[in-house]
Write a structure and sequence with these properties.
heterodimer; A: alpha+beta; seven-stranded antiparallel β-sheet; B: alpha/beta; Alkaline Phosphatase, subunit A; nine-stranded mixed β-sheet; two-stranded antiparallel ribbon
């Protein structure tokens, strides 16, 4: 009995075996896996990789040393300077083989680096002997492959086993393979080990002491194990653990990466989606589709949209001076790479620069895949802030409002005095403008109304009331130059409804107002006065005073039904007239909406003077047929606008500055906004980057209703807003003559016309006065006085509405010396009123208009090659597109189509790897020709097929695997097995391996009873060792407080440039690129972490303190408990004695060193327990938690 | 007998044959004499010393990284022609296809404001900003033709440290430790020291990339606790620590006997090294054994925090080399002078000049310079064009770096940029070439120092036909 003999070796021999083990592995593995196989040589799999790695550098496209070129079939068979290199069928005569096998250092190829391996040489020899089959010349655009992973999954029959009974399918495959090697499987692991293993593998946490006792007492039930599996799969912690694995693949982190590495406080929303999807067992195919293209799924549901956050885990470079397009493309390539590696274990990055050397994927195919991702944009959608954030906001807001109320009360107390000061201020102000009456020379009514001067200088109209009328008033002034004309419409008892108009209800409609002047001495010619602005204290929205400046009959000034009230209008006279001219241009960048990250642009020109516009110029790069609109937008009081004119145009497709004619001239007023918008077709192209198109997403409404300009995102784009727009309205209506003045006063002629279609609304009584005040509207002097306040000031104090009075008082309070500070304080407080916090979720969205994709020569995005359309590699099954051009959703469905040979295999391999510490294919990231072959190809195919049959249910698959005997076997090493199968590829036993970083931390927290099991929500920042944060650019790190820091490690804030040292020490990936499997290193820094890192020691302390506090327990019982907590099993007799000895030793030390005991026991030692005992138990717990077994999956 | 029963029996045998039970394996023997375990650990130890590919001149490297791109035009390479062109723009032909970070092609030429002169027998150029380093001219191998593709800091730093703008590649120190292991028994083979403003990419600059994380740089602090978690919690005396680790080792051994997994013996050895490090690391940063003269030369007694810290790091680097560490990275940031060039360059130079020169001289005096390479490294240079009034933008197409010791050719200036420092006139030196040469000095063939990842054999010098050993740089 060979085995028995082996067991009698000495300890020394055991260690020798341990020591030499490593050297056995590689060759043995290979022999093991290749045993019984004698396959034909495949060029793509066996030959091209060797040539590419070792020969092409000197004998390839770039260089042809000695004239030999090996990368093209034709050239290779011709040979080089020394004749034919390869003679098909005759390896012995082939110079190629002679040179690669030569012992002469000067002759041997390749001249540098390691010799080719005997295996490589054997393959090359066989290849030549088999006829040097070379499928194509290596230059074709597509390649086919007979590599195993690219062949369809075929469900193999279950192997027949000699043993009887109902064998689990997995065991059938595993045992058939073991039987072939003459190997016996290990026995099943004991129940305590199984419980711990299952709990670790399914939830990432050790079983609690209660669970251990319950499960062990449940022993007699035949279905106890299965019930445990079901129980664990239902646990919320199951989703947390398996989400963690997915986060590695998705390079999840809570920060941007690169230099600035800004935090991403909302990244967790996608992380929570993953946890939830896994817990509700979302079928894996849907899991994939939603993440790859959830934004394209019909129905617009929110959950699949959040799923696309998968793509948002790519890095963002916010370093100053970077080329944004460069980093957008990097992110697109990263998405492509991550998607294909995580779902299909394809490594395609090489093909970014050149066709893949090893796998049959061309550079064109790479960019065909790239094109799928090139048309997805990043988008942030609104999301509900967290409850904690909202509660904080509500509390803050309430406190703030109290402050506001207090200040308001202070201001209110001032009110009576303030009103008095306001009256004084108004009087003072009024004095400043001196309106001088005219000496009336003549009065004329075109329609024969009576028109007479009144004693007070006003003009009263009477007689028959004609439908329309025009008054001409000529008057003289002694002023040498006037700056404004005041027109007062006055009530009069003689008028219907007391006037001031002659309509039955007293209204009037002034269609047109004009004025001209010449020096009183007649020395100079008369000229029209350019009225550049007008204000009225009352006006109807559709009949504003400005309407009286133009010759349009349809517009004019009306104050509605006046009920016998006066109204005042002031016309501002321009100091000089303007010739028709192109006015200035101005591009206004719109606002940025931080929540949605869209920029709103509207191109606008603010009109500097009143006048008439009949044409404009615009810089357009619109496509032919695109429509756009030109609008005249007028600011209204209260910050809103309305559209007063609109005209639509169709672009002719010629780029550049174009002049357009308005079909009817527009009357404009100073301050009007001339704006430009499109209506859906692509209108502009960026001047700078040709392939970036800009699209209007909304147009202004057609009807002239009040609009808030800022609510109209006319152009939406996230990059490159270097656009130009020229707007140039031209004033052409009147051929103004510059008015001329001299110091002898002027004769003024006023025209007041009523020619509107609504009849009988002429003015009844009015007065005209003029002024030469430098600033007749008080604009310059009171730049602080806003227009609406100016308007209110025109109204008699007694006639102001309550609202107007309040507005005026509020304004005055802000400039009054005494109240200004209070008002300022109040305004500041109001401004700082906490706004309801907004939150976002990071998702993707399809582009409405497609961006073109090109091959990037040598991977350089600035060097564009051919344009490529979306397509998938030809060596894989065809993709079925829904439309003419395949999109990302088609790609997603192609990924999970059962005919795709990779996806199901890769998925089951990932799951298998987590349950056995190694995949059936070890290279979980690479199923290509450079990956390792599967240890059990038929089992892999069977599982892949079964997975699809199980409706892609991960839970069902996991249950299937963990109920096999293969999974449940003991992981204890067996020397005879180690000799035959050093890496345990054949799984005669389970594997034993170190836990991942997160699980180690979680285990400690659980053992110490500190674990906070709350699931989901924002990530937390644990305490960082001092000084660690300073090493990165943004070195602000505020650790969270409270029990949140005891949450599972999955929820640790992952700052890409500032990973928690503990995570890095235990091989956490850097979260920068997809990670399919982690290293499992074993270093002194790990020992230091487990012994001394604050959180780990805290766990040990809590556990030890608990042991000390339980006074009723014996030492033995306490040791039993510390073992159950730390390693989920009872100590054996040796262990028990050894720990008892430690307890004694430590108690002795602490008895002698009470200060040390006090230090260790901490601030809150259990009462009535000798301090040295507490200290000793804390130290014991720390020791036990440092056993190798604690951080191991047995 | 089932294998399970066999295992149980095996364990009983162990206990019976072991002289007086498991407890007698005292820590002292565990630490020193347990050859079996030691042998086993070293076989498995990824950091165990390994022979180079061929004879090496360099054994250790102190890579001083001046993050942000120091203005080489104001420190090492004066370009008098710029005086003539002061205030002029460059012809379109030079700027046509150039990508700038912040300035545009209409920026004006800016001559240096610093005073330059030649130093040493070799007559190497230095500006007055480096009065100490210039006194080491004849030990310095100046490289005037460095160039790179990256023109933003973080990508540039990744190229200089890891050979690629992409993340996830191992840094130079990781490759060296992977290729050669470390001679240090009690301290890490790859140590990172920082002072003052940070290098922007943080730990990505000393990453082990796809290599096992054992090879990543270990951040050391120059005061307090030099290595994270080195100190035991309060109240855990050395006696308690010893007794505890003794028990842990015994219990791990008990486990090893029942599950026979060699990984457990690695774990036992790792705890052993951790315990040794607990003594060795504090000794490292305890400078009481250095002479007052040494401390003064380095400037360890400077009053300014950053100056003191940088000086201390230079001295610690020497002490680490003496203790067998393979690669020591010293970081100092803040060299990104888009503005305020004159003042900030003076300030930064003041911080680093004296300690670096002291390091070179100290190493030389102790006979360590011939086997220790010291590098002045950074991601790129700065433009001969002005940014604003007193600044320069990023310039990747030609810049200067230097190395000294470890077999580098002292007193030699390699190649030159053109007369305005825009492009390279002679002997271009890509970062890949520099890396290939550096590895060569360590006895490593960059084409053969590979690691298979995602199906490709990766190298520090890229995956293509890149990286050439430049013999002229070698003494």
């Amino acid at each position: 009995m060979r085995i028995r003999v082996y067991w009698k070796v000495t300890i020394a021999a055991l260690f020798v075996f341990v020591a030499t083990r490593a050297s056995w592995s590689d060759d043995k593995d290979r022999r093991l896996l290749n045993s019984g196989k004698k396959t034909a040589i495949d060029f793509e799999r066996d030959i091209r990789p060797v040539l590419a790695a070792r020969c092409f550098a000197c004998h390839g496209a770039k260089k042809q040393e000695s004239g030999l070129r090996l990368d093209i079939k034709k050239a290779a068979l011709v040979g080089g300077d020394s004749g034919k290199a390869i003679i098909p069928g005759k390896s012995k005569q082939s110079e190629f083989i002679r040179r690669i096998t030569s012992d002469d250092k000067d002759e041997r190829m390749p001249p540098e680096g390691k010799r080719l391996t005997s295996e490589q040489i054997a393959k090359l020899t066989r290849w030549i002997d088999q006829g040097a089959v070379w499928p194509d010349d290596g230059k074709s655009l597509s390649r086919k492959s007979d590599h195993w992973a690219f062949q369809p999954v075929v469900r193999p029959p279950l192997p027949e086993l000699k043993s009887h009974g109902n064998t689990h399918p997995i065991d059938a495959f595993i045992q058939a393979r073991l039987a072939k090697e003459g190997l016996k499987p290990s026995p099943l692991a004991d129940r305590a080990t199984l419980l711990r293993r299952l709990s670790q593998d399914l939830t990432g946490l050790p079983p609690s002491v209660d669970e251990i006792e319950k499960f062990l007492s449940d022993e007699r039930r035949p279905d106890a194990y299965e019930r445990l599996v079901d129980h664990l799969l239902r646990s919320i912690h199951y989703g947390e653990l398996w989400a963690q694995y997915w986060l590695d693949l998705a390079r999840y982190a809570d920060s941007d990466g690169y230099e600035k590495d800004l935090p991403r406080p909302n990244a967790w929303r996608w992380r929570d989606w993953v946890i939830d999807a896994i817990n509700r067992d979302l079928p894996y195919d849907q899991f994939a589709v939603q993440q790859i293209a959830g934004d394209l799924l019909p129905g617009g549901a929110r959950s699949p949209l959040i799923a696309t956050g998968f793509h948002r885990n790519s890095l963002t470079n916010r370093e100053g001076g970077v080329d944004q397009e460069e980093y957008r493309i990097k992110a697109v390539k990263d998405r492509l790479s991550t998607t294909l590696t995580s779902f299909m274990a394809m490594t395609i990055d090489c093909a970014e620069c050149h066709s893949h050397k090893y796998d049959p994927i061309t550079q064109r195919e790479y960019y065909g895949l790239y094109a799928f991702f090139n048309n997805a944009d990043e988008k942030n959608i609104p999301a509900e802030p967290t409850a904690a954030v909202l509660a904080k906001f509500e509390a803050g807001k309430a406190a703030h409002q109290k402050k506001i109320a207090a200040v308001q009360a202070k201001l209110d107390a001032e009110r009576p005095e303030l009103e008095k000061r306001l009256t004084a201020w108004e009087q003072q102000r009024r004095k400043q403008i001196d309106w001088s009456p005219l000496k009336l020379v003549s009065l004329k009514s075109a329609s024969g109304s009576t028109i007479e001067e009144q004693p007070d200088g006003s003009i009263l109209v009477g007689g028959a009331n004609p439908a329309n009328d025009q008054f001409t008033v000529v008057g003289e002034t002694a002023l040498s130059k006037i700056t404004a004309i005041r027109l007062e419409a006055l009530a009069d008892k003689s008028l219907p409804s007391n006037g001031p108009g002659r309509a039955d209800d007293g209204r009037f409609l002034l269609s047109h107002f004009a004025a001209a002047s010449r020096p009183r001495d007649g020395s100079l010619k008369e000229g029209a006065l350019l009225l550049q602005d007008a204000h009225a204290n009352v006006e109807l929205p559709n009949f504003s005073i400005i309407g009286s400046l133009d010759s349009d009959k349809a517009s004019g000034w009306s104050i509605g039904r006046p009920s016998g009230k006066n109204a005042t209008a002031v016309f501002e006279v321009a100091s000089k007239s303007l010739k028709p001219a192109w006015l200035g241009n101005k591009l206004v960048n719109g606002s940025q909406d931080t929540a949605t990250q869209t920029y709103n642009f509207y191109y606008q020109s603010t009109i500097p003077v009143a006048g008439t516009i009949d044409r404009f110029k615009v810089f357009t790069m619109a496509k032919a047929g695109a429509a756009f609109g030109i609008h005249l937008i007028r600011p209204l009081s209260g910050g809103s606008y309305r559209i007063v004119y609109r005209q639509d145009f169709t672009a002719d497709g010629k780029h550049g500055i174009k002049e357009y004619q308005l079909s009817k001239p527009w009357q404009v007023r100073r301050g009007d906004v001339f704006a430009h918008s499109g209506n859906g077709g692509p209108v502009f192209r960026s001047v700078k980057t040709e392939d970036v198109l800009y699209y209007p997403v909304q147009t202004f409404p057609k009807q002239a209703s009040a609009v808030d300009l800022t609510k109209y995102p006319v152009f939406s784009s996230k990059r490159d807003y270097a656009m130009q727009v020229f707007l140039a309205p031209s004033v052409t209506s009147t051929d103004f003559i510059k008015p001329e003045w001299n110091d002898r006063g002027a004769t003024l002629t006023f025209t007041l016309a009523h020619n509107h279609a609504r009849p009988h609304q002429t003015l009844g009584r009015f007065q005209l006065t003029v002024t030469d005040a430098a600033d007749p509207l008080g604009k310059k002097k009171d730049t602080s006085v806003p227009d609406d306040v100016l308007a209110i000031l025109q109204v008699d104090a007694n006639e102001r509405s309550l609202k107007e009075a309040d507005r005026l008082l509020a304004f005055f309070a802000a400039i009054d010396k005494k109240t200004a500070p209070i008002k300022r304080q109040l305004d500041n407080l109001k401004k700082k009123t906490p706004k309801r916090p907004t939150a976002v979720a990071h998702v993707m969205t399809p582009r409405s208009s497609l961006r073109k994709s090109f091959i990037h020569r040598r991977g350089n995005f600035l060097d564009k090659g051919d344009e490529v359309a979306t397509h998938t590699p030809t060596f894989l099954p065809d993709l079925a597109a829904r439309g003419e051009l395949a999109d990302r959703l088609d790609l997603a469905r192609w990924v999970v189509n059962p005919s795709n040979p990779l996806t199901a295999r890769v998925a089951v391999n990932h799951i298998w790897a987590k349950l056995f510490g190694r995949g059936i294919v070890k290279t979980t990231e690479d199923f290509g020709t450079q990956g390792e072959p599967p240890t059990h190809p038929r089992l892999l195919d069977w599982l892949a097929d079964e997975f699809i049959r199980l409706g892609w249910s991960r839970k069902a698959l996991i249950k299937l695997i963990v109920t096999s005997e293969t999974y449940r076997r003991s992981s204890v090493f067996r020397p005879e097995l180690t000799e035959r199968d050093p890496r345990n590829l054949l799984l005669a036993r389970q594997n034993r391996f170190r836990l991942d970083a997160e699980r180690i931390r979680d285990h400690y927290l659980a053992a110490g009873g500190l674990l906070n099991r709350r699931s989901g929500g924002p990530s937390f920042r644990p305490e960082l060792p001092s000084g660690v944060a300073q090493i990165q650019f943004i070195n602000k790190w505020v650790a969270d407080k409270g029990d949140v820091v005891y949450r599972r490690s999955l929820y640790i804030h992952l700052q890409r440039n500032l990973m928690l040292p503990m995570l890095m020490t235990f091989d956490h990936p850097d979260s920068i690129v997809v990670c399919t499997r982690r290293e499992r290193s074993n270093t002194p820094l790990q020992a230091l972490t487990l012994l001394n890192a604050p959180l780990f020691f805290e766990s040990a302390h809590a556990l030890g303190r608990g042991l000390a506090a339980d006074k009723s327990a014996t030492t033995e019982q306490r040791i039993r408990r510390v073992f159950l907590s730390a390693v989920s099993r009872e100590p054996n007799r040796n262990e028990l004695y050894r720990v008892m000895r430690l307890v004694g030793e430590l108690t002795d030390i602490y008895k002698k060193n009470k200060q040390a005991a006090k230090d260790l026991a901490g601030d809150n030692p259990p009462p009535d327990v000798p301090i040295e005992e507490t200290a000793a138990w804390v130290a014991v717990a720390r020791a036990i938690l440092n056993l190798d077994e604690v951080i191991t999956r047995e | 007998m089932t294998p399970q029963q066999q295992i149980l029996q095996r364990r009983r045998e162990f206990l019976a044959t072991s002289a007086s039970g498991i407890g007698t394996l005292a820590l002292a023997s565990l630490l020193k004499d347990d050859q079996l375990l030691a042998v086993d650990f070293e076989r498995k130890d990824p950091l165990a010393p390994k022979p180079p590919h061929f004879d090496a001149t360099a054994k250790a490297c102190i890579f001083i990284y001046l993050a942000g791109a120091p203005s080489h035009l104001d420190l090492f390479n004066p370009k008098p022609k710029l005086k003539e062109l002061d205030g002029q723009t460059l012809p379109d032909s030079l700027t046509k296809n150039v990508r700038f970070a912040f300035i545009n092609k209409n920026a004006k030429c800016k001559p240096t404001q610093e005073k330059f002169r030649r130093y040493g027998q070799s007559g190497m150029w230095f500006s007055n900003r480096l009065p100490h380093i210039s006194s080491c001219a004849d030990d310095i191998c100046m490289m005037h033709t460095m160039h790179t593709e990256a023109f933003n800091h973080h990508p540039g730093q990744l190229v200089m440290n890891c050979g690629d703008q992409k993340f996830g590649r191992p840094s130079i120190g990781a490759w060296l430790n992977y290729g050669l292991g470390t001679e240090s028994k009690n301290l890490p083979g790859y140590v990172v020291l920082t002072a003052g403003p940070p290098a922007r990419g943080g730990a990505t600059n000393w990453s082990s990339g796809f290599l096992p994380s054992t090879y990543q740089g270990v951040l050391f602090r120059n005061q307090g606790e030099p290595v994270l978690n080195l100190n035991n919690p309060k109240g855990l005396t050395d006696a308690v620590q010893r007794k505890s680790l003794e028990a842990v080792a015994d219990l791990n051994r008990e486990r090893l006997n029942s599950v026979l997994d060699p990984e457990i013996s690695s774990r036992i050895a790792a705890y052993e090294l951790a315990y040794r490090m607990q003594a060795a690391a504090p000794e490292l940063i305890d400078l009481s054994s250095e002479t007052k003269q040494t401390l003064e030369k380095y400037g360890v007694n400077r009053s300014d925090g950053v100056q003191k810290s940088f000086a201390t790091n230079c001295l610690l680097a020497r002490r680490l080399v003496e203790r067998g560490s393979r690669f020591i990275n010293i970081y100092h940031g803040g060299w990104d002078q888009h503005g305020n060039l004159t003042k900030d360059l003076a300030k930064n130079s003041m911080i680093v000049d004296q300690p670096i020169a002291a390091l070179l001289k100290d190493l030389k005096q102790r006979g360590l310079l011939q086997s220790t390479m010291v590098v002045w490294g950074t991601e790129f240079g700065r433009t001969p064009l002005a940014q604003g009034g007193d600044g320069r933008d990023h310039h990747p197409s030609a810049y200067s770096m230097w190395m000294a010791g470890g077999g580098a050719r002292g007193g030699y200036s390699h190649g030159d940029s053109d007369e305005i420092g825009w492009g390279i006139a002679d002997k271009p030196l890509h970062i890949h070439d520099f890396h290939a040469t550096l590895l060569h000095l360590f006895g490593l063939d960059d084409k053969n120092l590979t690691y298979r990842f995602k199906g490709l054999d990766f190298r520090l010098t890229g995956t293509g036909d890149t990286g050439t050993v430049v013999k002229e740089l070698i003494a």
